Amino acid sequence: MNYKQLDPYKKDILIIDDMADNLRVLSSILAREGYNVRKALNWQMACTACQTLLPDLILLDIMMPEVDGYEVCQRFKAWELTSDIPVIFISALDDVFDKVKAFKVGGVDYITKPFELEEVLVRVKNQIELRTARIEILTLNAELEQRVKQRTWELEKALQKLQIEVSARQKLQGKLLDMALHDALTGLPNRILFIRRLGKALNRAKEESNYQFAVLFLDCDRFKVVNDSLGHLVGDELLISIANRLQSCLTTDSTLARLGGDEFGILLEDIKDIRMAIQIADYILQQLSMSFKLSRYEVFMNVSIGINWGHQGYDQPEYLLRDADTAMYRAKDSGRARYHVFDPAMHEEVIKALEKENDLRRSVEKQEFVIYYQPIISLTTGKISGFEALVRWQHPIHGLIAPTEFIPVAEETGLINIINMWVLQSACQQLRIWQSHPMTPKNLSISVNLSAKLFLQTNFITQVDQIIKDTQIDPSNLELEITETVIMENNNEIKVILQQLKERKIKLIMDDFGTGYSSLSYLHIFPFNALKIDKSFVNRMLDNQENMGLVPAMISIAASMGMSAIAEGVETQEQLEQLKSLKCDFAQGYLFSRPIAQNMVMDFIALATKW
Question: Is 543 in a helix, a strand, or coil?
Answer without folding.
Answer: coil
